[in-house]
UniProtKB/TrEMBL annotation:
GO terms of biological process kind: fatty acid biosynthetic process
Cofactor(s) needed by this chain: Fe cation; Fe(2+)
GO cellular component entries: chloroplast stroma
Protein's name in the database: Acyl-[acyl-carrier-protein] desaturase
Subunit structure: Homodimer.
Signal peptide residue numbers: none
Record-listed Fe cation 1 binding positions: 138, 176, 179, 262
Gene Ontology MF term list: metal ion binding; stearoyl-[ACP] desaturase activity
Binding locations of Fe cation 2: 176, 229, 262, 265
Length: 396
């Protein structure tokens, strides 16, 4: 059963008419919407609201997955109960943010906060920029639950739907919710960051949403989440390592504990995609190639703080420089997933399927080569101010 991806899915044309703040005003834009369910591509009027942040989004392609593939997910509900829900942890066995933070009801609260702040003094500003960006990414959780509920065949239809897919999405969200809470409270207590600027960035980001280009397809959606859970596992793991190097073992424990959750989520999402490869190898390899051609965008790529038009790019440069999340990690994740799903060994593919297979199997080394070339061309380091740390300058 082949996934017939809509032609529009392969367009890389960017919808670039969102204005930058200097010219932010009420403007009307035309956005193309394509849908196989709605036969002809639709062009819809999109009036920019004054509270929309100045970020670009791509051409929005919707409902590219045919009905027979939606049925696959309905038929997998029992399978998901036995194979996916087991990767959730019962609430009673879960850690909570309070386990890692000073207890405001205890006598020793002031002392514990003092200790936390002493430890945080040893940590450099650029580390805080990365940790803040990671926290903001976690705090935009409403967007990720929305994204999962855009997916045909697995969305939570009622808000309390009893399907395995909906149970997973709600419980996954509930687990994730602790990540932003914990990092937010730690950063607040540290006194090292401008909480108001951070809170504004979160508000802007949730208002912007995200543009993962998953087209309401759980094939694309679960490839995206597999990639992202591994990316967050890597980046929280690296902030844990750096915190340890800076002598803050408690912060290292916080980041490491979050990383362990991400790993468990990665296991669940990669298992779903593994199952799709088993049922529909052609459709799944097309979906993987499609997501990789479009490039996996980071969940917080639309971030804005009201000041820096290139905030996400600047944050990404710092994460790259500190080695928390790098272009090499991107290539490594792809290579890991290609191996995890045995993409090289898929058999019985159509001609198009084999082309998609060749493309994804050869992609990681190509990304690494391009990255090396980009590194050698990299210009002199420049600095930018980050509002999150009171406008102090950081090397990119
Ligand atoms: Fe998370
Ligand atoms: Fe996660």
């Amino acid at each position: 059963m082949a996934l017939k991806l809509n032609q529009m899915a392969f367009q890389s044309r960017k919808f670039s008419s969102f204005s930058l703040p200097q010219s932010r005003n009420l403007r009307s834009h035309r956005v193309f919407m394509a849908s196989t369910l709605n036969s002809a591509p639709r062009e819809v009027e999109n009036v920019k609201k004054p509270f929309s942040p100045p970020r670009e989004v791509h051409v929005q392609v919707t409902h590219s997955m045919p009905p027979q593939q939606i049925e696959i997910f309905k038929s997998l509900d029992d399978w998901a109960e036995k194979n996916i829900l087991v990767h959730l942890k019962p609430v009673e066995k879960c850690w909570q943010p309070s386990d890692f933070l000073p207890d405001p009801a205890s006598e020793g609260f002031d002392e514990q906060v003092k200790e936390l702040r002493e430890r945080s003094k040893e940590i450099p500003d650029d580390y805080y920029v990365v940790l803040v960006g990671d926290m903001i990414t976690e705090e935009a959780l409403p967007t990720y639950q929305t994204m999962l509920n855009t997916l045909d065949g697995v969305r939570d239809e009622t808000g309390a739907s009893p399907t395995s897919w909906a149970i997973w999405t709600r419980a996954w969200t509930a687990e994730e919710n602790r990540h932003g809470d914990l990092l937010n409270r730690y950063l607040y207590l540290s006194g090292r960051v401008d909480m108001r600027q951070i809170e504004k960035t979160i508000q802007y980001l949730i208002g912007s949403g995200m543009d993962p280009r998953t087209e309401n397809s759980p094939y694309l959606g679960f490839i995206y989440t597999s990639f992202q859970e591994r990316a967050t596992f890597i980046s929280h793991g690296n902030t844990a390592r750096l915190a340890k190097e800076h002598g803050d073992l408690k912060l290292a424990q916080i980041c490491g504990t979050i990383a362990a959750d991400e790993k468990r989520h990665e296991t669940a999402y990669t298992k779903i995609v593994e199952k799709l490869f088993e049922i529909d190898p052609d459709g799944t390899v097309f979906a993987l190639a499609d997501m990789m051609r479009k490039k996996i965008s980071m969940p917080a790529h639309l971030m804005y703080d009201g000041q820096d038009d290139n905030l996400f790019e600047h944050f990404s440069s710092v994460t790259q420089r500190l080695g928390v999340y790098t272009a090499k990690d991107y290539a490594d994740i792809l290579e890991f997933l290609v191996g995890r799903w045995n993409v090289e060994k898929l058999v019985g593919l159509s001609g198009e399927g084999r082309k998609a297979q060749d493309y994804v199997c050869g992609l990681a080394p190509r990304i690494r080569r391009l990255e090396e070339r980009a590194q050698s061309r990299a210009k002199q380091a420049s600095t930018v101010p980050f509002s999150w740390i009171f406008g102090r300058q950081i090397n990119l």
